[in-house]
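Quick one:
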Amino acid sequence: MTQVANKVETRGLVELKDLKKYFKSPRGTVHAVDGVNMSIAKGTTMGVVGESGCGKSTLGRCLINMHPATAGKIYFDGEDVTGLKGAALHKYHSRAQFIFQDPYSSLNPRYTVQQSISEPLVNERKYSKSEIDDRTVELMKMVGVDMRFRNSYPHEMDGGRRQRVVIARALALDPEFIVCDEPVSALDVSIQAQVLNLLMDLQDQKNLTYMFITHDMSVVRHISDDISVMYLGQLVETSPSKELFIHHYHPYTKALLSAIPSTDIHHKMNRIVLKGELTSPIDPPPGCRFASRCMYAEEKCLEPQVLEEVTPNHFVACCRVHEVNEDL
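Output:
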């Protein structure tokens, strides 16, 4: 049966409405993503940041339908793409792609650079061999991989070049949206900057839209237009990037930012060391999931928290935000 797209009005190219992804385990239900609402405007980058295990990678995989959502809706360009299958999913993947953290494990070790980059084009079965060859050359030039590596295998290249090959493969079908899941965390710092600049240049050239997933606040600051801070499956703060680094209101966001290394000896931020037990993502209580580690927690924090706009386009999920931040 053919799936018919249901077009709706949306603010961004990508819209999430109360998205949930749960996993069953012998001990209960893991709430990996639990009621996320998000809008990503066309041609911009939404940075999703949080510590390991917060659900940010699962969120990214749900957007590409690598994990089927448990509940909620995913809209792409106004169309409901939640739970697509078969030909409809294949069509969606020509417009939305994924870049993995480890370029070595995401490349077939038996494929040359040319074979890896051209694979999506070959799978489309509508391009001639000459068209595929021309497009492969174009993509290699686009991402800065020298033609002498055309017949090289992944193990014969360094991590930076491998990640460029992965990016070229993701661009093969001219997608509009790419989920970048920690794409530079496995690379040396000097190479990280090169790959980040490449992604930003490609965005400018092709008007790409990114979801950029990372645990590194310095990286997310460099590349993002907007930032969503995630904690145990939920968003706790979301804001334009520049605004977040000037005014950050959620206690968890404050702790993340305090951990950024600084060379400014005159304006060093005091490091906030989190204490207390980490709330389990298995059947979590209804209240704030950060409460067990929050120095400001009190009884009302045990009630469900919702994102509320505290300043224009700046949303925080904390019932004590006005008390904790006296400058509001």
